Amino acid sequence: MLYQMVTGAHPVIRDGANLQRALLDIASLEVAMPSVEARRSDLGPLAGIIDRCLLKDREHRTRDAHVLVEELEAIAVDRRVAVLRDDGNPFAGLASFQETDADRFYGRSREIGAVLARLRSCPLVALAAPSGVGKSSLVRAGVIPSLKRSGEGWDTFVVRPGRSPLASLCSILLDLSTSSTAPIRRRRRRPRRARRRLARSARPARRRAAGARP
Questions:
Q1: Chain centroid to CA 113: how far?
Q2: Residue 85 DSSP one-character state
């Protein structure tokens, strides 16, 4: 796989080639696998790492994936070290990645960059995709940490819409607007009054929505 990533071709199986002959060459200990270093000398140490993975002699071949990761990390430029959980598992399972998982959230750099670019030019960006593909993980472990690292002064808030999404959003904005310089007593009163107004305004909308059902 690494060979194909850096050369754009399978080391043995080529278009138009005899598949049976190619499989026999792969199985034969007498036929050496093609060398990445011979095709891509510009890769430096990476070419040697890939070539060692392709050696057929087990004594000289890279022992396992752990050794391979160590070799790749040793030559990585500006590498980011993943912070694993207590059990050493880099995966979140069925749960979504959170902001605290940013150091072990990989593989979405292109999508994160696209969202950040859109946020800088659009006041509203919506991510729409089927359930379970990783929208929450992308935002919480990818976009939010990137915004905070950017030094651009972004504030981030996580809102669960619930039955009244506008009321949930307004509640957070009210807490934000009343938590800075207003006196303590006024800070306590104003959010309560505002929430009561939001609750009253939300009731007719729910009734209208209920009346519109078939």
A1: 11
A2: -
In this predicted model, which residue has the larger pLDDT, 13 or 116?
116
What's the token pair of residue 172? 């957070």
Buried b (16+ CB within 10 A) or exposed e, 59-95: eeebeeeeebeebeeeeeeeeeeeeeeeeeeeebeee
Residues 6+ away with beta carbon under 8 Å from 77: none
Better-predicted residue by pLDDT, 178 or 119: 119
> Contact, 52 vs 61, CB < 8 A?
yes
Q: Say how many C-beta atoms besides its own lie within 10 A of residue 162's C-beta.
A: 8
The answer to whether the CB of 37 falls within 8 A of the CB of 43 is: yes
Question: What pLDDT does residue 111 have?
Answer: 93
pLDDT digits (tens, 9 = 90+) for 11-46: 777 666 677 777 777 777 777 787 888 778 888 888
